[in-house]
Design brief:
about 180 residues; 8-stranded antiparallel β-sheet; 2 domains; signal
């Protein structure tokens, strides 16, 4: 009888621990909140049931060419910008997610309110790209690309497009403009 009660208790604890709910603002390598790397465009309304999605389909049920999908909370604040694999296919998956809202955070608490120091101290930087108006810091560990406006950089390196920017060139207090998760 004791073995039966012990077994039932153990199974109950096992099932209770499996019932963990997903944090709607957690960002990881395979998901952003409830959105995963295998979410189809046609299922976005069920994933973001409590949010508003820009109207993305025309009369034929296909998305217009060149349009991204914007997600807003009920108060009208922009949360995310989604880019599907194929822009005119409702069965396509979302390939990248631009994170706008600071409530979204990685497992190491990196948000759009974080600084370069936060990124550099939390993750191994894979690559830094020097673009016209920004610097993109890539972190392969979580498939993320963090965009920092060049206005955050020292004036002597801000305008040199041929410079290979390294971590030591970016000030610790440089703010993240936004970041992407790429699948």
């Amino acid at each position: 009888m004791k073995k039966l009660i012990l077994s039932i208790t153990a199974l109950s604890l096992l099932f209770a621990s499996c019932g963990k709910t997903q944090d709607p603002f957690e960002v990881s390598k395979q998901h952003v909140g409830l959105l995963t790397d295998s979410t189809l465009v046609k299922n976005l309304k069920t994933v973001f049931i409590n949010d508003s999605i820009t109207e993305i389909f025309n009369d034929n049920g296909f998305m217009g060419v060149g349009k991204s999908i914007e997600v807003f909370d009920k108060a009208g604040k922009k949360l995310l910008i989604l880019n599907p694999e194929y822009k005119s296919d409702t069965t396509a998956v979302v390939k990248s997610v631009q994170i706008i809202d600071p409530r979204y955070k990685t497992d190491k608490n990196i948000t759009t309110k974080s600084t370069f120091k936060d990124i550099n101290g939390s993750y191994k930087i894979s690559r830094i790209d020097n673009l016209i108006n920004s610097v993109v810091v890539s972190v392969n560990e979580i498939n993320a690309s963090f965009t920092i406006d060049k206005k955050e950089l020292p004036a002597n390196i801000r305008f040199d497009m041929n410079l290979d920017i390294e971590a030591m060139h970016i000030p610790d207090n440089a703010k993240i403009k936004y970041f992407f998760i790429n699948w």
